[in-house]
Amino acid sequence: MKVRGERECQSCGTRWSYYETGSVACPSCGDLRSVGVDARTAHTDAAVTLDLAAHRERVGDAPDTLPRSGVDELQSDLREYCRKRGFIDGGRLLSLDGTYLAARELLEAVDCFERLRDPTDADREYLLELLAGADDGERPSADEVPTALREARGMAAVRAVEAYRGDALDFLDELEAGANPDEPDEIDVDDGAAVSAGGERPEARIGPARDAFERLRDRVTRVDALGGDVPPASADALVEAADALGEYVRTGDESTLAAAADLIDEASVDDLDSTGR
Predict the structure, then answer these.
(1) Helix locations, the chain, DSSP H
(2) By Cβ atoms counted within 10 A, which residue in 47, 243, 261, 262 is the most buried?
(3) pLDDT in tens, 227-260
(4) What angle do CA 214, 216, 222 make, to 5 degrees?
């Protein structure tokens, strides 16, 4: 969506950033009557934080790894966080950050763990390590992911990369529209460009980035078809490729585009069967 991020309260005159608060209500007096005082920009992210402290406390007090009474609440909080997150902030394309990735992986891991008939100590330690570090964007390394739960890593990569790719393609669409001001149907005549990127001639990145994101989509589709059951390193390569493409779109650094292409090749799972062999 496009919003006017800088707001002014019609009651007390206070100015604030919608991008920081996520609300049109005045932070000083609470009045809902506010107006935007700047141009509309693309914005999909929300001012939301991930706080799992209560869930860690509940797990610490329980005899089982996942207390039955808390699983639904944990999954609900993780879904809500992921639902509110986006990757365009005030017209700027963000990176694919660690906290979002960790939240996605923890959500998938909880579901996988719940389906295990006889979880091992390694399975439990992996889940608890995710829960301990997700708030700060920390995840176990690829070689620490237990075989029984590696589909959580794979499906987290699928969901995260698809969400990021969607926002990145929308960003490129807006970038293209802003580069063609003679097409009135493409932009609002009263506003400037809805997105911005650094470097020279950012519009020149549109074609190469779209092509690379399409190649990435093919890899993601394959991993999705395998239910995420692929080597964790391949799943991580998908994430790293998406993030490298985002860096290319933001800066125009050709080396990041080349790095993304290499990572997409590394993420190939066409030679794997359903068991990942």
Answers:
(1) 18-21, 53-60, 68-84, 98-115, 121-133, 150-178, 206-225, 232-251, 254-266
(2) 243
(3) 999 999 999 999 999 999 999 999 999 999 999 9
(4) 110
Whole-angstrom Cα distance, residue 89 to residue 45? 6
User: Which residues of the chain fall short of a pLDDT of 50?
Assistant: 63, 186-187, 189, 271, 273-277
What b/e string do you get for 155-177 counting C-beta neighbours within 10 Å, with b at 16 or more? Answer: bbbbbbbbbbbebbbbbbbbbbb
pLDDT at 67: 62
Give the Cα separation of 4 and 16 in Å (integer): 11
SS3 at position 70? helix
User: Residue 146 and residue 225: Cα distance in Å, rounded?
Assistant: 20
pTM assigned to the model: 0.85
Q: 195: which DSSP letter?
A: -
